């Protein structure tokens, strides 16, 4: 089977937004990582990149008194996010090259960064830094090692890619982030490979 095209990801999520939202687990297996990130973050302003429908992650953070800003390249996902996270600020924008002119305490790219092609992922670290203040926490997921694979979203094929752990470490350092934790295929988080870093640059 051919590898899905990374340029089709946003169109796919636009088409399946409602089905994806209905099928998305509400178990909040991410909770331990979210709570840890909040413990390190200097405040409660959260930038949620590739925000999707907002449940369960953004709604949980909003319940924890976080002020949520969601960004998604699929308009239908933005509409769901706005409905599911009352009071959130939502932008229908591609995260690549994003420039909101604001800085946040916690930046999330959970199950979103890995939909970008490798070169686009490399470019995102400058975007993360542009939206970070001192001690901002960055929380994102990747694959356990470098490679490109096909996945599914509500039954339709979608692209996934990862850089190597060493390359992610280098990109984080170059962008001014220090790694707080890295757990490949975390058995307590449905096998997600999770990175948590803190901004210490400029």
UniProtKB/TrEMBL annotation:
Keyword 4Fe-4S listed: no
GO aspect biological process, one term: methylation
Claim: Transcription is one of the keywords in the record: no
Any GO MF annotation of the entry: methyltransferase activity
Signal peptide (UniProt feature, chain positions): none
Gene3D superfamilies: Vaccinia Virus protein VP39 (3.40.50.150)
Keywords assigned: Methyltransferase, Transferase
InterPro entries, alphabetized: SAM-dependent_MTases_sf (IPR029063)
Domain of life: Bacteria
Name of the protein in its database record: Methyltransferase
Protein species of origin: Sinisalibacter aestuarii
């Amino acid at each position: 089977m051919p590898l899905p095209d990374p340029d089709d990801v946003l169109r796919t999520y636009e088409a399946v937004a409602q089905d994806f939202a209905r099928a998305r687990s509400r178990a909040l297996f991410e909770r331990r990582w979210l709570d840890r990130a909040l413990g390190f973050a200097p405040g409660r302003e959260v930038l949620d990149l590739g925000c999707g429908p907002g449940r369960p992650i953004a709604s949980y953070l909003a319940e924890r008194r976080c002020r949520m800003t969601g960004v998604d390249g699929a308009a239908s996902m933005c509409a769901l996010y706005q409905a599911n996270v009352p009071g959130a600020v939502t932008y229908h924008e591609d995260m690549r090259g994003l420039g909101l002119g604001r800085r946040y305490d916690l930046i999330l790219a959970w199950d979103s960064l890995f939909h970008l092609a490798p070169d686009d992922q490399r470019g995102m670290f400058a975007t993360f830094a542009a939206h970070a203040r001192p001690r901002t926490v960055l929380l994102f997921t990747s694959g356990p090692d470098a490679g490109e694979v096909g996945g599914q979203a509500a039954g339709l094929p979608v692209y996934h890619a990862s850089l190597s752990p060493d390359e992610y470490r280098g990109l984080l350092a170059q962008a001014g982030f220090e790694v707080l934790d890295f757990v490949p295929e975390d058995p307590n988080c449905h096998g997600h490979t999770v990175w948590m870093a803190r901004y210490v640059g400029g």
